[in-house]
Amino acid sequence: MLRSTLATLLVLAAVPALAQPKADPDWPCAQRKVSTLGPGAVWTGPDPTPALAEWGNDTDAALLAQKIASRRLPLEEVDGLLDAFAGKLDKAEKDTRLTRVFAGVFEVLNGERDKVVAGIGRYARGQKVMAERIRDEAGRISEVKTAPDVPDTKELTELESRFNWDKRIFQERSQSLTYVCEVPTLLEQRLGAIAKKIQARL
User: Fold this and answer.
1) How far apart are CA 39 and CA 12, in angstroms?
2) What confidence score (pLDDT) does residue 202 get?
3) pTM for this entry
4) What average pLDDT does this structure show over 129-144?
5) Backbone φ/ψ region at 90: left (φ over 0), alpha (ψ -120 to 50), beta
6) Are 99 and 3 in contact (CB under 8 A)?
7) For 78-92, what is each residue's pLDDT tens digit?
8) Residues with Cβ < 8 Å from 159, sequence gap 6 or more?
9) Mind listing the pLDDT tens digit for each residue in 30-81?
10) Element (H, E) at 122
11) DSSP one-letter code for 47
């Protein structure tokens, strides 16, 4: 009985590990890849499904959503804009229209995030191609230097020049990638912060 129970527990313990999705080999960031977000990740207010379909038809809500979604606008200024919008609403329409504002912010920021995530994947694939080219160039330089006959100085100079240039570009792109990888997280944080501000006014 004990052996059977232990076997069952071991199987159950292994299930979450087996259920984990495979890591994307093209994803270069330390942060886990989440391809797209759902509203439930940041929103605990009214069901946003109708608002996601309607927000673009509510001119005032759409304009506000686009304005506060913009990363150019400091988060500290979002409160005043939400208060001004909510202050003009009747009690009966407040939840509906504020939820539309959230829906607009969600679609704008999530759409921007989707593009960044796709761009990171393309960027990483480009880096992989460049890394292979640099390895090939290093191998060719080694072949020329160790050839039994006298190395072709011109060819060697050209190979080394190309190798050094490609290596420099690769390193610069790798450093840039560190910053680019932070963008999806920053967008998620902004979305979550705005969602909380809207929910506080429902």
Assistant:
1) 30
2) 92
3) 0.74
4) 89
5) beta
6) no
7) 999 999 999 999 989
8) 137, 140, 141, 144
9) 888 887 889 999 999 999 999 999 999 999 999 999 999 999 999 999 999 9
10) helix 91-145
11) -
- C-alpha neighbours within 13 Å on the C-beta side of residue 156: 10
Residue 166, classed as helix, strand or coil, is helix
Pairwise CA distance, residues 168 & 176, whole Å? 12
Question: In this predicted model, what pLDDT tens digit does every residue of 153-180 receive, in sequence order?
Answer: 788 888 889 989 989 988 888 888 888 8
- What single-letter amino acid sits at 28? P
User: What pLDDT shows up at residue 11?
Assistant: 36
Other CB atoms within a 10 A radius of the CB of residue 195 amount to 21
26 touches 125 (CB < 8 A): yes
* Encoded tokens for 164: 């050094």
- Pair of tokens at residue 119: 């761009």
CA trace torsion 78, 84, 86, 88 (10° rounding): -160
Tokens 């292979």: give the residue. Answer: 132
150 SS3 class: coil
Alpha-carbon distance of 119 to 172, in angstroms, equals 17
- As a whole number of Å, the CA-based R_g of the chain is 26
Average pLDDT for the chain: 85
d(CA 78, CA 110): 18
Q: How far is 6 from 196, CA to CA, in rounded Å?
A: 44
